[in-house]
Sequence to fold (123 residues):
Amino acid sequence: MAIETPSAPYRVSAAANIPEPPDGTATSGGLCGCRHKHTTEMQSDLQKRLNRIIGQLNGVKAMVDDNRYCGDVLTQLAAADSALKGVSSLILRNHLETCVIERIEHGDTEVIDEVLQLMRKFS
Fold:
């Protein structure tokens, strides 16, 4: 999967497929070290939410395999979709509060275009 970078001077790390600046100052999480921005509490919350969503989707798969009533399947899909949007919202909020602020503080205002693209994907 290719990652679009906001400006040409950035290259994509072959190992992690993460944009990094040409001067090599990126940390393991990209330009601002996102990998280290999630607190242990947030990481745990995200894992629990994702595991719950995986369980919901496995349940939906079983419902489809059992040829269950379409309305029931759609209701469960809507619940999983809502839960997934909640996870996306938490991660986007954290990204704005940490990564985006840090990049703007370092003069990288092109991150705003990235944020707008992300917001379009989740709206």
Remarks:
- Residues 70-105 form the longest helix (36 residues).
- Residues 1-30 have pLDDT under 50 and may be disordered.
